[in-house]
Amino acid sequence: MRRSMGVLLLALASCRTTPAKVEPVRPVAAVPGGMGDVPLGNRFAYIPGQCYAKTRAVGGLVHNPCFACHTWSEPPNFADDAEQQLTWGTLPKGAAANPWRNLLAPPVAHAPRRSDEEILAFVRASNYFGSDGEIELARVLAHLPPAWDGEGDGKWGGYIPDARYHFDDRGFDHRSDGEYTGWRALAYAPFPGAFWPTNGSFGDVLVRLAPAMREDRAGHFDPKIYEVNFAIVEALLTRADVAIDPVDERSLGADLDLDGTLGTAKKIAFEQGPAGTTRMRYVGRAGDESAAGRFPIGAGLFPIDTEFLHSVRYLDLATDGTPKMAARMKELRYAKKARWLSWDDLKAKAAAELVEAQESADGARNFVWQFDRGVYNGQGWLLQGFIEAADGSLRPQSHEETAYCAGCHGGIGATSDSVFSFVRKVGWGTRDIKGLAEPRRRDGRPEYQTWLRETGAGDDYRANDELAKRFFDAGAPRAASLGAIASDVSRLLLPSATRALDLDRAWKAIADEQSYTRGRDPVLAAGAEIYAQVPPEEKTGVVAPVEGPRGRTVRHRTDASATPR
Ligand code: HEC
Ligand code: HEC
Questions:
Q1: The pLDDT value given to residue 186
Q2: Closest Cα to atom 5, ligand 2: which residue?
Q3: Which of 231, 235, 320, 417 is the most exposed place for a label (fewest CB within 10 A)?
Q4: Looking at per-residue confidence, does 320 or 442 come out higher?
């Protein structure tokens, strides 16, 4: 990086008379833990802080925030861990002491207080784009700092950030020259709990499909083909028909509505046979690749090389004080389907993993660290992330920081092919939280209200005082206030301006310490409702597992041949 700047300066000096403004070279922050394959301080980093939430309150009330993640799963997710809501008995011995110390003693409690002006100015400055509009990480990764070179091969083999966050009205992202980046913004209802802005962060999700999915049969980029393939993936994952703008099936050479003839299709028909087989077909080059056996398709599965990008951001305030997504990122999280696994493969993996964990000396699951490519979750996906360094820039996450990703994405019943947001889609593009209707579970119940009732609080740790006051009387839900969420979730999801800035301060205090391996949830005060040590009696007090969070109408258990609904 230094050398290229020098060359650039020389070049500028020789061909220009007016001096150009060049950004000073920012020293790269040291990476705690580094990118190397060092032993993990916490072998259970894949078990998140949420598992240590106290479930029994005084007065005998039982709180169950557990059901959001631990639930009966729908194949090809074979985690099927609803019983996990009932007990800590399965927790490996070494994980009985809560390793997430930042939840018990949040760094913000002893950090010097930043003024409102200071924290606002900070979150409003982008650490993704440089002042010249170029992507800062891409620039730094092009000349890999030695501290980030875990493998020692001198180059960055992982994801190089390339999303421009410049979306058209169909959600497609464009470079400044108008070219498509391939990314498409997904508007989705955030997963209940920690991912609501009121509990810490704003997030957005972009998705990109393999090049073959974007191109016509001759290999040329075609946004229409790309859109149809997106609709097909949506049908495969939501397991429902998806309406599309009418298309001529003859020109595409595919029977999209599965009516047996090639005509005009107004929908993508979903179909699922035994073990996820389907007559559905992708269109364009991916369709031809599929026919040649090189690009598999399966119900409930994303195609190979699908990528997701998830930015986790600070809270900013609009002029009227309403919280909105900040320019500054706390984290940039990435996932890529690197390997195709069929339903049968996934079923075999789930069984093997159970045995493996039982046989490992300390009961810990092991995830393969692929350095700059992140961790492999054992189910086809590589997970990788960047996180805020002490100086406010973004740096790659260490092995231990990345191990954190692999439990939620792959180890629990709630995901669909290791992914959360996609089946929670409410549209393409970006969407204002204000006026967003509450998502419905498949059993027809309102999703967020159900979660609030089960949890008896506005967050997993019963630490969100604002929501406690707004929706509960000592843990008992107030029906009238809850009902107001149905037509507009912003009453629930958005904190007050004061709380928003406090949450920003809480994360910044962790970032200053770079103590993410001790927990990165920005809680404001010491957690009274979080176990430092899980109770020896092991029972959570939950008597029957709750279906959630989307709910289902049929229980499939682990029967791979079952057909949903
Ligand atoms: C945000 C999602 C989430 C929530 C909420 C959650 N958990 Fe977990 N839990 C996980 C993940 C991820 C793992 C690691 C799974 C894996 O990869 O083996 C886990 C693991 C566990 C384990 C260890 C299981 C094993 O076999 O190693 C126990 C016990 C557990 N959770 C109990 C609970 C309880 C009790 C609650 C509610 C108080 C809860 N969890 C809430 C995500 C969650
Ligand atoms: C405590 C559970 C949890 C952990 C740990 C976690 N995630 Fe996620 N992740 C989620 C949830 C929930 C969403 C959906 C976001 C929302 O609802 O706002 C998500 C979304 C994503 C997405 C977008 C695709 C999707 O699944 O919706 C990517 C990519 C992602 N996370 C990567 C990562 C990486 C990389 C890490 C580790 C640095 C990580 N995640 C750690 C729960 C988790």
A1: 98
A2: 405
A3: 320
A4: 320
